[in-house]
């Protein structure tokens, strides 16, 4: 297979995935999350149910279709920061950008839907735990890290909690301004890793 064919296939897969996600979100917002089934989404998107499940593992995943991008952005805040750039400011900057995206007027109906659904709230919680683990892995692998793996995992949880608390607040930036000095102080107080 040529590179061109491979690239075309990947673009087609990405377009199908986006079409399914956009269709699902539109239906969920129009009819209510619980009133729409997987078959409804597949039929409206003009794909087979098996195709839908090849792109999304569950109905809840349709709502969180940008979840993978969110996770990559968090880990890149650690791995792609400039040499000698401190970790905490890089994380704060990325969390602020993510919160701004998630608190835009266009996102409000989606978050109202999530908040109103026990299944979506539970899924959101599992997603946040997964993001924290991915972020902890990136922090622990950072060659400039001078703290223990436990400290890295704790920092990741604090950062994800800061995102959640600020996203829900009337003034997200003020919340981050309050939380991140505490996170920085905790990181500064953390023990260095044990020598092996």
From TrEMBL:
Keywords: DNA-binding, Transcription, Transcription regulation. It holds the Pfam family TetR_N. Gene3D superfamilies: Tetracycline Repressor, domain 2. Residues 14-74 form the HTH tetR-type domain. InterPro entries: Homeodomain-like_sf, HTH-type_TetR-like_transc_reg, HTH_TetR. PROSITE patterns: HTH_TETR_2. Signal peptide: none annotated. Residues 37-56 bind DNA. SUPFAM superfamilies: Homeodomain-like. This is TetR/AcrR family transcriptional regulator. It comes from Streptomyces anthocyanicus.
């Amino acid at each position: 297979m040529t590179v061109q064919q491979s690239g075309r296939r990947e673009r087609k897969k990405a377009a199908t995935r986006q079409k399914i996600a956009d269709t699902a979100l539109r239906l969920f917002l129009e009819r209510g999350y619980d009133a729409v089934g997987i078959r409804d989404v597949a039929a409206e998107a003009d794909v087979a149910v098996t195709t839908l499940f090849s792109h999304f593992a569950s109905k809840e995943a349709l709502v969180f279709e940008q979840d993978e991008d969110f996770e990559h952005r968090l880990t890149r805040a650690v791995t792609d920061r400039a040499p000698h750039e401190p970790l905490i400011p890089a994380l704060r900057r990325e969390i602020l950008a993510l919160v701004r995206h998630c608190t835009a007027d266009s996102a409000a109906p989606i978050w109202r839907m999530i908040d109103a659904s026990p299944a979506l709230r539970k899924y959101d919680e599992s997603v946040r735990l997964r993001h924290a683990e991915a972020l902890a892995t990136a922090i622990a692998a950072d060659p400039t890290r001078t703290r223990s793996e436990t400290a890295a995992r704790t920092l990741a949880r604090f950062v994800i909690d800061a995102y959640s608390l600020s996203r829900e607040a009337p003034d997200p930036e003020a919340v981050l301004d309050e939380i991140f000095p505490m996170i920085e102080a905790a990181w500064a107080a953390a023990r260095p890793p044990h020598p092996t």
